[in-house]
Amino acid sequence: MYLFEGLRQQLAEYLPPDQVQRAAAAFKLAAEAHKTQKRRSGEPYITHPVAVAGILADMRLDHETIMSALLHDVIEDTEFTQEDLAEQFGSTVAELVEGVSKLDKLTFDSKEELQTENYRKMIMAMVHDIRVILIKLADRTHNMRTIGHLRPDKRRRIARETLEIYAPLAHRLGIHDIKNELEHLGFFALYPWRAKLLESQVKQARGNRRELVERVQKEIEARLHEHGINARVIGREKHLYSIYKKMLSKELHFEQVMDIYAFRVIVDEVDTCYRVLGALHNLYKPIETRFKDYIAIPKSNGYQSLHTSLKGPHGIPVEIQIRTEEMNLMADRGVAAHWLYKTDESSGTTAQVRARRWMQSLLELQQSTGNAFEFIENVKSELFPEEIYVFTPEGRIIELPQGATPVDFAYAVHTDIGNTCIGARVNHKVYSLSKPLETGQTVEIKTAPGSRPNIAWLNFAVTGKARAKIRQYLKGQETREAEQLGERLLRAALGPVNYNDISAEEFARVCEEVKIEDKSQLLREIGLGNMMSVAIAKRLLGEVQQLKDEQPSNGRGLAIKGAEGLLVSFAKCCRPIPGDDIIAHVSPGKGLVIHRRECKNVRGHEDEPGRYFPVQWDNKPDAEFVTEVRVEVVNHQGALAKLTSAISATGCNIHGLKTEEVDANIYYIDVALTVHDRKQLADVIRHIRKMPDVQRVARLRK
């Protein structure tokens, strides 16, 4: 029992004696169950559950959580079953232990492995009772503290899993104490050299800065004293891993990250926070745009504070967080803070209420997503949020992740509003549905009863809820509607030919050509805009072969045979001209876009025959086409003038010129010309080649 003594004293500080006794009984059973087992370090195994319970006791968690922590490996590693524990300690403790045991069986080698049923199970266990994840986080923290005894490969795997999964989870639940420790230990285990080097740099930098830090701290304390404000002022150190991440993600030098001086001012009342803010804005000049009020609008994990940035002595940036003692406790412990005082579902701290709300939203997501992969994709976006806060026209605050658009907002308000959304007004001005929103905007959604979600929304919707609901709606609606629309479009494209006269064999042939299973799927692809009805109609009528014999019926010859009734444009990337071997890309909305077959933008088109259309030039097109040639010329006075006069002598118009210096005396001149066909272009190129200063001339390929 001597191992339990330290924990007993910890528990006695905040739990009644009968609950401490129950925890002692749980310890007895755990010690008995694990008596033959040893840890890698050679210590008795029971030291691990006691340490885990100690971490949770620091957070002042309830006796059931402490008992479950002491017993968390019993079901998995010993003869005892869930029923045995339920009989002795009650069903809640038994369920918590079972929940943690299930989580222990989950292993993740990487983020990719997250995208499996395993992670879904973990999230669901957490939704069932959030204390499961608190025990798991404490378990992981103690394992990370003793990770030195493991093999290097295992150490790296556990460290990576800690940084990618458990630290973000702790952050999402607002438990910054554990998040910071997990990141610190994970960083040293995964990148020992980087961590040690960075640590020594930080120590050195802190030594050099000590005088300035002390001066700023004294000035802040003196100013608050003048205003009669009681407050604790503490210098805030950036954590090693957060310095590393900042350097990595924002590509900053170490000096740029370290030249910010950060302080925390802790007071007793919320009102005092704002008085402190006023006093400090009088002391140093505030930096505009760098003020955030997380007290009025807390972060999604319940974090509350005022953040402001000031220009301190010598113009150094000083970052200050102002918060109450309670907010400080909340920032460190999040969901776990004040657990004891939770009596019913509606009470509890902001973090608990928000965590519960988050859990609830996960449960809803789980029910509406089709598979584990989709669910995980959505949860990941929820796990790493940088929030923005926007308002409904009635003044209700809606919290969304960074990058969220009006579509996300519409679904956050109500699924039906999302499904029937047709436009948005932000701050009374029309606003694009795909444009990200910013904190503080007032968003108004316009809806129309008959409208439906657009598949393109998936390109910019970022919240899990919006993406899941759009997919869900489209899956339900698209099949039948797309097929009907595809049939209507195909009937129109066939013109005088009756759709019903086309045989099943013809449809089967075209389906094979465009690599599609059957007629229904073909119609659906047309309806969804993935294939163009005119292109399919021409294939059905076998007109790909007949193009050679077709003559345009209107007086003026079309440049492309068989393209009557179609919108035709020529690609700017490769600028095709008559005589080139060409292919048309079928682009919904743009019609046929003609490319040269060798153009890199259409290479590999054989894989998608439904999107490409074989075309030929008309024998007598009367249009002029723009093409580009690159001339490499020795630079001396008058070279450009000679070149332009040589080109105009061939009867071509110059459409545009670009020059680029290669070295001191060689220039590239890119000339855009209008020509009728390849023959005329060949004449122009021959003509330019004869010029004395021209080194090379060739048609430009992009």
UniProtKB/TrEMBL annotation:
Entry's Gene Ontology cellular component terms: plasma membrane
Q: What class of enzyme is it?
A: hydrolase
- Keyword Hydrolase listed? The answer is yes
Q: Which GO terms describe its biological process?
A: guanosine tetraphosphate biosynthetic process; nucleobase-containing small molecule interconversion; response to starvation
Which residue ranges does the record assign to the TGS domain?
386-447
* Alphabetical list of SUPFAM superfamilies matching this protein: ACT-like, HD-domain/PDEase-like, Nucleotidyltransferase, TGS-like
Q: Which reaction does it catalyse?
A: guanosine 3',5'-bis(diphosphate) + H2O = GDP + diphosphate + H(+)
Domain of life, per UniProt, equals Bacteria
Q: The HD domain covers which part of the protein?
A: 45-144
Q: Which InterPro entries match?
A: ACT-like_dom_sf, ACT_dom, Beta-grasp_dom_sf, HD/PDEase_dom, HD_domain, NT_sf, RelA/Spo_fam, RelA/SpoT_AH_RIS
Give the pathway listed in the UniProt entry for this protein.
Answer: Purine metabolism; ppGpp biosynthesis; ppGpp from GDP: step 1/1
Asked whether the keyword Transmembrane is assigned, the reply is no
Please state the Enzyme Commission number of this protein.
3.1.7.2
Segments forming domain ACT: 628-702
Q: Care to name a GO molecular-function term for this sequence?
A: guanosine-3',5'-bis(diphosphate) 3'-diphosphatase activity
Keywords attached to this Swiss-Prot or TrEMBL record, sorted alphabetically, are: Hydrolase, Kinase, Transferase
| Record function comment | In eubacteria ppGpp (guanosine 3'-diphosphate 5'-diphosphate) is a mediator of the stringent response that coordinates a variety of cellular activities in response to changes in nutritional abundance.
Similarity comment text for this entry: Belongs to the relA/spoT family.
Q: What is this protein called?
A: guanosine-3',5'-bis(diphosphate) 3'-diphosphatase
